[in-house]
Specification:
mainly beta; 14-stranded parallel sheet; eleven-stranded mixed sheet; 23 helices; globular
Length: 1808
C-alpha cells in the first residue's frame, strides 16, 4: 500500500474516533448506567524507538487496564480519558489540536505523550480502538452511554505503526474467519477449526444454557450470534462483539455465528462466514447392556470402526469376544489376522457399569486375543468398572482389554476402577506380542498378583510399553508381582513411562515395584514418584523402579517415591540387577546396588537434573524432570562453566529455569547457538544439540594490555588534572590500577571523563595487542541560549544530562505531563547563565503542590535526580518546583540569583521526598514566606541530610495589617518550614527578614515541627551548625526560629538577634548538647556558651559527637568544627580531656519540671569523671537536685555542672523551668482538650453514658498532644446537654446534664411510618474536664443519637412480621404443605416503605431471584419451584430491614428481624405422569409436516422426509422430558426429530411409528403411543429423472461453480461452491448457493472419501478439494493467482438427497443384491480441470498492448517519414519475451510496414 493510501485511511480512522469499519449497535441499548472496561496499550513500538514526525516513543506495554463508571453524557472518548486519568492523574489524553479531550472531541491523537503521525514513507502510526474486540465504523465519540456502549463493554485502545495490520485490522485482504471459539456448558464436535463451519454442540448434563466467546482473525469483521436457522443482518443478534454471552438453548436449537457480513463493513464488500452450531441434548448414560454396531468402518486396519458411544464400544467388545471364543488359537504369526481395529471419535463414558474386557483372558498362554489396532485418538474412556468375565472358569483378567495378542493400543486415557484376581490392570490384563503406546491409566486397580496400571503381564520379547503413564493407585493382595506400570515384565521393553500412583502389596511374599514388579524386560527412561508400600513383615524384593530385576538393561531412571518393606528394599531395585546405568533416587531412601546413585531432593527437583537423565527427559520449569512427551515439557540445556562468573548467552533467547544458573528451557523445533564469555577469557560458542544435555565449557585466559588517558583542555591544549575516568566493557565497569592505568583485554571499551568546570567527555576505544594511551579533549560548557532543548540519551532508563539544553528538555518533558517519575543524572556541569546572559529558568515539575491540594491534583516529581557532584550555574528560580514521596534529589551544587514569593529554595520549592548532599551558593530574595537555602517546605516523610548553604537569604515579607501572631515568615538557611528530620546540615550565608514585626527566622530552619499525622520524633534538628548572621523582629534563632522538635548536637557562631539556638519554643521542643559562641546572641537560653578557643578545641569536637571533626586543611570553617563528610578529622587529645568532654556532652537535665522530688543528678561520668552541681536558687532546686515546687509563680533555675578528671575540667549550665502544680495541670488539660474529637456517635447496646464515651477518647488525645497526665487523673462531666438540631420543637433531653445519672443517653424513637429525621443530632453539648484544681471545658459540635433498636424491632414485629402471611407469598399454591408452583415474594408490605424485605431459601426445591434491596421497588420477586424426585421440606425466610437508619454523616448499623415459612414442595412424579399423558394426546399425525416439501402433510400418502414434533410443541420442557420415535420398518429411519423416508418402488408401504415420552428425573415414568403412516409409492419416472439430474450436473459442473469466470481455461476470479443443484419443471438445472434455499430434492456436496472429522488435521477440505491449495483454497474455492499460469484440479462428491440413502442402507447392511440396484446413486465423484492464469499474463498483456499501440500508430500508407515510428515499434517488439510477442495481434502490420519502408528506400536509392 502506498504512503498516500495509508495516510488517507489512517486519517479517516482517526476522524472516526480512530475506529474502522462497522456499526455495532444498530438499535439503542437501554439507558442504564454501569461500568465499562478500558485497556490502553502500546504493543508495537518500543520505548525510545524513533517514531518519525512524533519523536521517540515515551512508553511501551499496557498503560491502562481498569473499569470506569459510566455517567450520563459519557461517550467512548470521555470513558477512555476517565480510565487514563484514573490510572494516573498526570497522564494526558489530547485531541488533534493538542488539547485535553472532551465529549465533543473528534478523536484521540495522543495518550501520555505517545501520539500519531508519519512513521515511515510507507506507513503512518496512531491510536485505534476496538469495542468488544471489533473496529467499528462509527466514531468513538458517536457511541454514547446507553446508545452504543453498555454495561460490561470493553474499549481497547491500541497503538498502530502500520495503519492497522499490526493490531489486527487488515485493509487489503481481510479474513472473515474466527481465530478461536470457546464454549462452556457444552462440547463442540468436531473440535473448532477456523475453516470448518458445521458443528454439533452437545449440552453438558443438566445444562440449559451455553456461554460463547469468540475472537475473529480480522478485527475489522464483526461477530454476531443468532438463534435459529435464519438471521436478519440488520438485527444486533445475541452477542456484543467478543463479549462473553450466555444463551439459553434446548436440544435441536440452532446457533448461527456470523462473521463479516457486508452490511456491517463500510469499506469493502466481504463474503461473510457463517458457523452453524446444532444443539444436541446431553447424552444419557450407558445402561451396561446396549450394544450397537458402529455405522462407519469395517474393523480392518485400513478402515477401522469409528466408535462414537459406549454402546458401539460394547458391540466391538462382544464381537471380538465371540470371535476369540470361536478361535482354536493361532498356530503361527502367519495365521494371525488383524481384526477389530477401531478409532474413538470422541470421549466415551461407560457410566460405571460392569465391564467385561475386550478379548477376555482364557489363559496366559493362549495364542489368541485382540489382534487389531485400537486408536484412542487422544480421547478418554470414563467410568470403567472392569470385572472378570463371569462366564469364564479362569477367573482372571480384569481390564479394558483382556488378552492382547499382537495387537496395538495407543493414544488413549482410561479412568475408573478395575477389580479382579490375577492379571488385573487399567489398559490390558495381558500383553503378548503387542504394543501399548501413548496411553494413560487413571484407574484404581485391585487384584491378587500380576497386576499393573497399564498391564498385568508382559510375556514376549516383542511386547512394548512406550510413553505410558499410570496415575491410579494399584493394590495386590496375594503373592506379589504388583507394579505401577506393569506387574510382571518377563520380556519386551518399557520405555519413557512413569508412575505417580501408590503401589501397595498386602500379600505375604514379594516383588513390588514403582514401574514393574519383576522381570527381565529392557527398562529405559522411566521414573516413579508414587509410594511403594508392602503391609506385611514377610514382604521383600520391593523397589522404586523394579522389585526384582533379572534383565541386563535398566538405564536413565529415577525414583522419588517412598519405599516401605521388611527386606530386600531398594530405592531403585529390591533385588537382582545387572546392566544398571544412570539411575538415581533421592537420598532419603537407600539402595544396595552400587550402580545406583543417591541425590539430595533439592538436586532432583531441578531442570539441570534432566540433563543427567538424557534426551528423553525435559523440564516443566520447576520441580523434578518429566518425560518429553508430557504436556509442557521442554528440553534442557545446562552449562557448567569455568570461570563460574562466565556469562552464557543463547541465540535466540530462551527462558531460564527458575532459581537455576545457566540452565535454559528450549522451545521444540527451534535451533539454538550458544556463546560463553567472561572478562579476561576467550569466548566459546557452538550449536546446541537436540534434547536435554549438560555442556561443560572452560574458557582459556586472555592477555591484558596497559591503557592510560591523556586529558587536555580543548582550546588551550594544556593538560587537565583532577579528572575522573570510568571505563566500561559493555555494562561492566573496569577498575583502574593504583597508578591510574588500566589492564584491559583485547576488545571494545567505552569511557566517561569528568572534570570540574568541563563538559563530560564520552567516547570509545579499541584495545589491540599493544599498550597505548587514549587522548581526550574536554571543553568548557557554554551558557544556554534560553530556548533550545535537546533530548539526552538514556542508559538503563536514566537520562544522561550533559548540558543546559538537555536539562531544559528534561524540565519541559516533566512539566508537560510526560512523566513525573523520570530519572536523570548530570554528567557535566551545567551553565544556565553566565555573566553575559539572563535566561529565565522554569523549575522542574512546577505544578500544583500537595500543600492543601486534592490528591487527584498532585503532580509533584517522584523520580531520582543525581547531580553526581556537578554544578548548575546561573539559576534564576529553584532547580525543582515540587517533589513527592519517594523522590530523591542529591549530589548537586547550584549557583545563581533567585527571586520569588513563597515556598522558595535553591534546590526545591517543596518536597515530600529526600534531599541529600546538595550545596547552594545562590542568593535568594523573596517577598513571601517559607524560604530556605535548600528547600522552602519539606513535608512529613521527607528528609534533608548533608546539605550546605553559602548564599544570602533575604525576605522582605511585610504585612502591617496582620495580627502579631500571623507574621511568621519561616525563613531558614537550609529550610523554611520543616516537618522532617534535618541532619548534618550547615549554613554559612546571612539569613534575614526585613519586614516590621516579622518572625520565625533561623540559621538552619525557620520553623520545625512534627507533621499533623506523623509519628512523634519523626521531625528533629540533629548535628547542625550555623555561622551566618540571622536577624528578624522576633522568634529568631541561630539554628531554628521556632521549634516544636528536639534540637540536638548543634552549635551557632553567627550573629543572631534572638536566641542562640532556638528563637521560640513550642510544645514538643527540647534542646540537648547545644552551644553558642560568646557574644553571638542576646539570649543563650538553655544552650551552653563557649569561647572561640573552646569551640576550636579538640575537646569541643568530641563534645559535639561522632558526626563532627576538626577543621584542618583546607580551612573550611575558620577552625570551628565541621562534619566528617566535609573532611573533618577526629582529634587526638589527652585521655582525661577526652573523658571530660564525652561525660559533659552526655549530661541531661529536664528543661521543665512539674513534680516535686529528686532530679537524680549524675555525679560520676561513664568515663570516670567527677561531676559536681550548683544551683542559683537552692529554695527551689538544691545542689543535690531536690525540687520544691513554687507556690505563687513558675521559677527558672540555673544548674551548673563541673566535670573533672585529673587536671582536665569543663562546665555546663542548664536552665530549668519549675512550674506550679495547678499551672502544670491547667496547661496539660488545655493540650488534651485541643486533641479531643468534636463529634461523637453513641452505639445502641454498647454506650449508655456520654461522659464515659468521651472518657474513652482521653487516652488517644493524651498521646496525640504529648500531655503528661493520665486518663485516671481526669474527671469528665456533662454541664450542658446541648440542643436538638434536626427538630427544634423536639423537647426530648437525649443527654442528661443533671446531677443524678449525669451524662445518661436516651436513644431516639419516633413513629417509623411518619418519621422524617432518621435519628437526632445534638449540638453544642458542653463537658467539663477536671484534674486537681485545674479544669477546662470542651464543646461538642455534634453528638448523633441513633434509633432505639428494641423499640423499632417491636414495631417491626407487631406491624410488619405479623401481617406478612403465607397468603401474601403463595402465588397459585393453596397450602404450605403442598407447593407445586412458583411463589410471589413481595419486597415490602402494603407499600409501607419504612421496611423492605429480602428473601432466602433453605429448601432445595425453591430458588430465589437475585436480592433487590431498594425500598422503592414495587414489583414482587419470585421463588422458583422445581419439583424434585421426592418431596422437599424447608424454610423460606424473609429478612425484614428497617429503612430509616442513618447513612450520613455516619453509617448506623442495620436493624433487621426475620420471619420463616416452612414449605413442602411436592415431588415431580405425579406432575410428570399428567404432563406426559397430555403431551401424548397432543402428538397427532395432523401436526406433522414435511422438512422440505411445501405440500400439506397427508399421513396416508407420505411424500418426503418428515419433521417430527419437539418437546416445546407439546408443552414440555426439553430439559425435563425426552421424546423418542421408533419405526417398525427400515423404510422410515428416525434421526432425532427427523424421519427419513425411503418409499418402495411401485407400492405403498404402511409403517408404524412408536412415540415414547420419558420423565428424565425418573425414567420409569414414561408412556408410549403408536401412529401409522402410509408411504407414497416411488415411481420409475422419479428415479429416471434423478439419473438425468446426475448426468446434467456432470456435464455442467463448471457452470455451477464458475463464479465470474467464463472459461475453465482462464480462471482469474474466485469460484463459487454450491449447496444444492436440482431440476426445475423444465428439467433445467437450478444451482442453490444459499443454505436457506435448499429444497431437499436434488444433489448436494457430501464428504469426500478420506475426510476424517476427528483427525487433528483433515487437510482443510471436506466437500470441495483443491489439488493446489496455494492457488485455489479448499471449500471456499478462493483463487490466489500465482505468478505463472497453473493447472489445478477441484473435486467433490455429490449425493442424491433422496436416493443415496438407499444405496448406503443396503451397502452397510451387507445386502449386495439390493445395493447393486441403487449403485447409480452411490456418491458421485466429480472433478474440474482448471487453468488459473498467472499474474504474469497481466504483465505480458500490458507489455504487448503497449507494442500494439506503437504499431497502430504507424500511418497508412507508409512514407519515408514513418521510419522513426516503425523503428520504435520494432525496438519495443524485440524487447518482449516470447509469450509477450505471441500476444501482439497486429505484428503483421509491422512487418508489412517494414517491407514498404525498405521498398521506398530502395526506390530512393535508384533515383539518387
Amino acid at each position: 500500500m502506498s504512503k498516500r493510501m495509508v495516510a488517507l485511511l489512517l486519517a479517516l480512522v482517526m476522524l472516526l474516533g480512530l475506529l474502522p469499519a462497522g456499526a455495532l449497535a444498530a438499535e439503542p441499548e437501554n439507558n442504564s448506567l454501569g461500568k465499562v472496561h478500558v485497556i490502553v496499550e502500546n504493543m508495537t513500538a518500543k520505548e525510545g524507538q524513533d517514531l518519525g514526525t512524533v519523536g521517540t516513543c515515551p512508553w511501551a506495554g499496557k498503560l491502562v487496564d481498569t473499569d470506569v463508571e459510566m455517567e450520563a453524557g459519557d461517550n467512548g472518548i470521555t470513558l477512555v480519558a476517565k480510565a487514563v486519568k484514573k490510572t494516573n492523574e498526570s497522564y494526558a489524553v489530547l485531541d488533534g489540536e493538542n488539547k485535553p479531550v472532551d465529549k465533543d472531541a473528534a478523536y484521540i491523537a495522543s495518550i501520555n505523550g505517545l501520539a500519531g503521525g508519519d512513521y515511515t514513507e510507507e506507513e503512518n502510526n496512531g491510536w485505534m480502538c476496538t469495542l468488544n474486540g471489533w473496529f467499528t465504523s462509527s466514531g468513538l465519540n458517536a457511541y454514547q452511554v446507553g446508545t452504543g456502549i453498555a454495561d460490561g463493554d470493553e474499549l481497547r485502545m491500541m497503538y498502530s505503526m502500520t495503519g492497522g495490520p499490526d493490531v489486527g485490522y487488515t485493509w487489503n485482504d481481510p479474513s472473515t474467519a474466527l481465530a478461536s471459539l470457546n464454549i462452556s456448558g457444552g462440547t463442540l464436535s468436531p473440535a473448532f477449526a477456523s475453516d470448518v463451519t458445521e458443528y454439533t454442540l452437545t449440552l453438558d448434563d443438566g445444562s440449559k444454557a451455553v456461554t460463547l466467546s469468540s475472537v475473529q482473525k480480522d478485527k475489522s469483521m464483526q461477530v454476531r450470534t443468532y438463534k435459529g436457522t435464519t438471521y436478519d443482518a440488520m438485527q444486533a443478534g445475541l452477542t456484543r462483539g467478543n463479549r462473553k454471552a450466555t444463551i439459553d438453548v434446548t436440544a435441536d436449537d440452532t446457533l448461527l455465528i456470523v462473521v463479516g457480513d457486508q452490511a456491517w463493513n463500510s469499506y469493502q464488500t466481504i463474503k461473510k462466514t457463517v458457523y452453524t452450531l446444532t444443539i444436541a441434548a446431553a447424552p444419557q448414560g450407558w445402561d451396561g447392556k446396549t450394544a450397537m454396531q458402529p455405522t462407519k468402518g469395517d474393523g480392518s486396519t485400513e478402515d477401522p470402526y469409528q466408535i462414537t458411544s459406549a454402546a458401539e464400544l460394547a458391540w466391538l467388545r462382544n464381537d471380538i469376544n465371540t470371535r476369540v471364543a470361536s478361535q482354536g488359537g493361532y498356530g503361527s504369526a502367519a495365521e494371525k489376522e488383524a481384526y477389530g481395529s477401531a478409532v474413538l471419535m470422541n470421549d466415551i463414558d461407560l457410566n460405571d457399569q460392569a465391564w467385561v474386557p475386550i478379548s477376555v483372558v482364557t489363559s496366559n498362554g493362549a495364542k489368541k486375543g485382540y489382534t487389531g489396532t485400537f486408536n484412542g485418538n487422544g480421547h478418554t474412556i470414563f467410568g470403567l468398572n472392569a470385572i472378570v468375565d463371569p462366564n469364564t472358569t479362569a477367573a482372571v483378567g480384569a481390564a479394558l482389554f483382556g488378552h492382547v495378542y499382537g495387537g496395538t493400543i495407543k493414544n488413549l486415557t482410561v479412568k475408573g476402577i478395575s477389580n479382579g484376581k490375577n492379571y488385573t490392570a487399567g489398559i490390558a490384563a495381558i500383553l503378548f506380542n503387542g504394543t501399548i503406546s501413548d496411553c494413560t491409566s487413571d484407574v484404581t486397580v485391585n487384584g491378587a498378583r500380576m497386576i499393573g496400571g497399564i498391564t498385568g503381564y508382559m510375556s514376549n520379547a516383542d511386547c512394548k510399553l512406550i510413553c505410558c503413564a499410570n496415575t491410579g493407585n494399584i493394590t495386590g493382595n496375594d503373592t506379589g508381582a504388583v507394579g505401577g506400570v506393569c506387574g510382571t515384565a518377563n520380556k519386551g521393553e518399557i520405555n519413557a513411562c512413569y508412575n505417580s500412583g501408590t503401589v501397595t502389596c498386602t500379600g505375604n511374599k514379594r516383588q513390588t515395584g514403582g514401574i514393574a514388579a519383576s522381570g527381565a524386560a529392557k527398562i529405559t527412561d522411566c521414573y516413579n514418584t508414587g509410594n511403594v508400600v508392602t503391609n506385611t513383615t514377610k514382604s521383600k524384593q520391593v523397589g522404586g523402579i523394579v522389585g526384582y530385576y533379572s534383565g541386563t538393561s535398566l538405564s536413565n531412571c529415577y525414583n522419588t517415591g517412598a519405599i516401605t518393606a521388611s527386606s530386600n528394599v531398594g530405592a531403585i531395585l529390591g533385588g537382582g540387577g545387572s546392566g544398571i546405568e544412570n539411575c538415581y533416587y533421592d537420598n532419603t531412601g537407600t539402595d544396595a546396588n552400587e550402580a545406583t546413585t543417591a541425590l539430595p531432593v533439592a538436586d532432583i527437583n531441578t531442570a539441570r537434573f534432566a540433563t543427567k537423565l538424557g534426551a528423553a527427559f525435559g523440564s516443566l520449569g520447576s520441580g523434578a524432570p518429566v518425560l518429553m512427551w508430557q504436556t509442557g515439557a521442554k528440553a534442557v540445556a545446562a552449562f557448567d562453566v569455568t570461570p563460574e562468573d562466565a556469562v552464557v548467552t543463547l541465540t535466540p533467547a530462551a527462558k531460564t529455569a527458575a532459581g537455576e544458573n545457566n540452565v535454559f528451557l528450549l522451545t521444540s523445533g527451534t535451533s539454538y547457538t550458544y556463546t560463553v564469555s567472561a572478562s579476561g577469557r576467550a569466548d566459546a560458542s557452538g550449536a546446541l544439540e537436540t534434547g536435554s544435555k549438560l555442556y561443560t565449557i572452560e574458557l582459556p585466559a586472555a592477555q591484558a594490555y596497559r591503557v592510560w588517558f591523556n586529558v587536555m583542555d580543548k582550546e588551550s591544549g594544556e593538560k587537565i588534572t583532577g579528572y575522573t575516568v570510568e571505563v566500561k566493557s559493555g555494562d561492566t565497569v573496569c577498575p583502574a590500577g593504583e597508578d591510574g592505568k588500566y589492564s584491559l583485554y583485547a576488545g571494545k571499551y567505552t569511557y566517561t571523563v569528568s572534570a570540574s568546570g568541563y563538559e563530560t567527555a564520552k567516547g570509545e576505544f579499541t584495545v589491540t595487542k599493544t599498550n597505548h594511551g587514549v587522548d581526550v579533549s574536554m571543553a568548557r560548557p557554554g551558557a544556554w541560549d534560553g530556548t533550545t532543548t535537546e533530548q539526552p540519551e538514556q542508559v538503563d532508563g536514566v537520562y544522561q544530562i550533559a548540558n543546559a539544553k538537555q536539562l531544559a528538555w528534561f524540565a519541559q518533558k516533566i512539566n508537560a505531563g510526560g512523566s513525573r517519575s523520570l530519572c536523570a543524572v548530570l554528567i557535566s556541569d551545567i551553565v544556565i547563565n553566565d555573566a553575559s546572559t539572563n535566561n529565565e529558568w522554569t523549575p522542574i515539575q512546577d505544578g500544583i503542590s500537595g500543600y492543601g491540594a486534592a490528591e487527584e491534583d498532585r503532580c509533584e516529581y517522584t523520580g531520582t535526580f543525581d547531580g553526581k557532584g556537578h554544578t548548575v550555574y546561573g539559576l534564576t528560580a529553584p532547580l525543582f518546583g515540587n517533589a513527592d514521596k519517594g523522590s530523591m534529589i542529591k549530589n548537586v551544587t547550584v549557583t545563581g540569583t533567585i527571586t520569588g514569593s513563597t515556598n522558595v529554595g535553591a534546590i526545591c520549592k517543596t518536597t515530600y521526598g529526600n534531599i541529600e548532599s546538595c550545596v547552594s551558593y545562590a542568593t535568594i530574595t523573596v517577598d513571601g514566606k517559607r524560604t530556605g537555602g535548600i528547600a522552602g517546605l519539606v513535608y512529613a516523610g521527607g528528609s534533608i541530610t548533608n546539605c550546605i548553604n553559602y548564599g544570602a537569604i533575604t525576605s522582605t515579607y511585610a504585612t502591617p495589617s496582620l495580627a502579631p501572631d500571623a507574621k511568621e515568615a519561616y525563613i531558614g538557611g537550609i529550610v523554611g518550614y520543616a516537618y522532617v528530620g534535618v541532619e548534618t546540615c550547615a549554613n554559612f550565608g546571612e539569613v534575614k527578614a526585613t519586614g516590621d514585626g516579622i518572625s520565625c527566622v533561623g540559621g538552619i530552619a525557620g520553623y520545625a515541627r512534627v507533621g499533623y499525622e506523623a509519628e512523634a520524633g519523626s521531625a528533629y534538628l540533629l548535628n547542625c551548625y550555623n555561622t551566618g548572621a540571622v536577624s528578624a523582629a522576633s522568634k529568631t534563632g541561630g539554628i531554628v526560629g521556632e521549634a516544636a522538635v528536639a534540637v540536638t548536637n548543634c552549635y551557632n557562631t553567627g550573629a543572631v538577634t534572638g536566641g542562640a539556638i532556638i528563637g521560640s519554643s513550642a510544645t514538643g521542643s527540647s534542646m540537648k548538647n547545644c552551644y553558642y559562641l560568646t557574644g553571638s546572641c542576646t539570649d543563650g537560653g538553655s544552650a551552653a556558651e563557649k569561647t572561640e578557643a573552646e569551640m576550636k578545641s579538640a575537646a569541643f569536637v568530641l563534645t559535639l559527637g561522632e558526626a563532627y571533626g576538626q577543621d584542618t586543611t583546607p580551612n573550611q570553617n575558620k577552625g570551628y568544627p565541621i562534619f566528617t563528610w566535609q573532611g573533618g578529622t577526629k582529634p587526638t587529645i589527652d585521655p582525661d580531656e577526652e573523658a571530660v568532654a564525652k561525660d559533659a556532652a552526655a549530661l541531661t537535665v529536664p528543661e521543665t519540671v512539674t513534680e516535686a522530688g529528686d532530679l537524680h543528678l549524675t555525679t560520676t561520668g561513664d568515663n570516670s569523671s567527677t561531676i559536681t552541681w550548683s544551683s542559683n536558687n537552692k529554695t527551689i532546686i538544691t545542689d543535690a537536685g531536690v525540687v520544691t515546687l513554687p507556690t505563687m509563680a513558675d521559677e527558672t533555675v540555673t544548674l551548673t555542672a563541673t566535670v573533672t578528671k585529673g587536671l582536665a575540667s569543663q562546665t555546663r549550665t542548664f536552665r530549668v523551668l519549675v512550674k506550679t502544680d495547678t499551672g502544670f495541670r491547667q496547661e496539660e488539660l488545655a493540650k488534651i482538650e485541643q486533641s479531643l474529637p468534636k463529634s461523637l456517635v453513641p452505639v445502641y447496646g454498647a454506650d449508655t453514658n456520654v461522659n464515659e464515651l468521651l472518657r474513652s477518647k482521653l487516652a488517644a488525645a493524651i498521646k496525640a498532644s504529648g500531655a503528661a497526665l493520665k486518663p485516671e487523673d481526669i474527671t469528665v462531666k456533662l454541664t450542658n446537654g446541648g440542643r436538638n438540631n434536626r427538630n427544634s420543637s423536639d423537647t426530648t433531653a437525649y443527654l442528661n446534664a443533671g446531677e443524678e445519672n449525669n451524662g445518661a443517653i436516651t436513644f431516639y424513637y419516633n413513629d417509623p411510618a411518619t418519621d422524617t429525621r432518621g435519628g437526632e443530632t445534638v449540638v453544642s453539648a458542653v463537658f467539663q474536664l477536671t484534674s486537681g484544681a485545674a479544669s477546662v471545658t470542651h464543646t461538642m459540635t455534634t453528638i448523633q443519637i441513633p434509633w432505639d433498636v428494641n423499640k423499632v424491632k417491636a414495631d417491626m414485629q407487631e406491624r410488619i412480621a405479623k401481617n406478612l402471611t403465607f397468603d401474601l407469598i403463595k402465588g397459585n399454591n393453596t397450602s404450605e404443605e403442598d407447593i407445586t408452583s412458583d411463589l410471589t415474594l413481595p419486597y415490602h408490605l402494603d407499600r409501607d416503605l419504612w421496611c423492605h424485605f429480602t428473601w432466602s431459601s433453605a429448601n432445595s426445591a425453591i430458588t430465589i431471584d437475585e436480592e433487590k434491596d431498594q425500598p422503592t421497588i414495587a414489583a414482587n420477586g419470585t421463588g422458583h419451584v422445581t419439583p424434585l424426585a421426592v418431596d422437599s421440606t424447608g424454610k423460606v425466610t424473609a429478612t425484614i430491614i428497617f429503612n430509616k437508619t442513618a447513612s450520613s454523616p455516619y453509617e448506623e448499623p442495620p436493624i433487621t428481624i426475620t420471619k420463616d415459612f416452612t414449605l413442602t414442595v411436592k415431588s415431580g412424579s405425579s406432575v410428570a405422569v399428567d404432563q406426559i399423558k397430555a403431551a401424548l394426546d397432543l402428538y397427532t399425525l395432523d401436526k406433522l409436516s414435511y422438512i422440505y416439501l411445501t405440500d400439506p402433510f397427508d399421513p396416508q400418502n407420505v411424500l418426503g422426509d418428515v419433521q417430527l414434533l419437539r418437546p416445546r410443541q407439546l408443552g414440555l420442557d426439553g430439559s425435563e422430558y425426552s421424546i423418542t420415535v421408533t419405526s417398525d420398518s427400515s423404510y422410515v429411519q428416525v434421526n432425532g426429530y427427523r424421519a427419513n423416508i425411503l418409499p418402495q418402488l411401485g407400492q405403498k408401504t404402511a409403517v408404524q411409528l412408536t412415540v415414547t415420552i420419558k420423565y428424565k428425573a425418573n425414567e420409569t415414568i414414561s408412556s408410549s403411543k403408536k401412529l401409522t403412516i402410509q408411504l407414497a409409492p416411488l415411481s420409475q419416472e422419479t428415479i429416471d429423472r434423478e439419473k438425468l439430474l446426475i448426468q446434467k450436473v456432470r456435464a455442467a459442473l463448471f457452470d455451477g461453480m464458475k463464479g465470474e469466470n467464463t472459461s475453465p481455461d482462464a480462471i482469474t476470479k474466485d469460484l463459487h461452491s454450491f449447496q444444492e443443484v436440482y431440476l426445475d419443471e423444465n428439467n433445467e438445472l437450478v444451482w442453490v448457493y444459499d443454505v436457506k434455499e435448499v429444497t431437499g430434492m436434488g444433489l448436494v456436496p457430501g464428504d469426500i472419501p478420506g475426510y476424517d472429522p476427528m483427525a487433528s488435521y483433515s487437510g482443510g477440505w471436506r466437500t470441495f478439494r483443491s489439488s493446489n491449495e496455494a492457488v485455489i483454497t479448499h471449500e471456499s474455492l478462493h483463487v490466489n493467482r500465482p505468478e505463472q499460469t497453473t493447472k489445478v484440479k477441484v473435486d467433490c462428491s455429490l449425493e442424491s438427497e433422496r436416493f443415496t440413502r438407499y444405496w448406503t442402507q443396503f451397502t452397510e447392511a451387507g445386502n449386495t443384491t439390493e445395493a447393486e440396484k441403487w449403485k447409480d446413486f452411490a456418491p458421485q465423484a466429480m472433478e474440474l480441470e482448471l487453468t488459473v492464469l498467472g499474474t504474469s499474463v497481466d504483465t505480458d498483456k500490458a507489455a504487448a498492448d503497449a507494442v500494439i499501440a506503437l504499431i497502430d500508430d504507424i500511418p497508412t500508407p507508409v512514407t519515408l517519414e514513418s521510419e522513426s515510428k516503425i523503428t520504435a515499434a520494432r525496438d519495443a517488439y524485440d524487447k518482449l519475451t516470447d509469450p509477450q510477442q505471441a500476444l501482439v495481434s497486429n505484428y503483421k502490420k509491422l512487418t508489412a510496414a517494414e517491407a514498404a519502408l525498405a521498398a521506398l528506400k530502395d526506390a530512393q536509392d535508384d533515383t539518387d
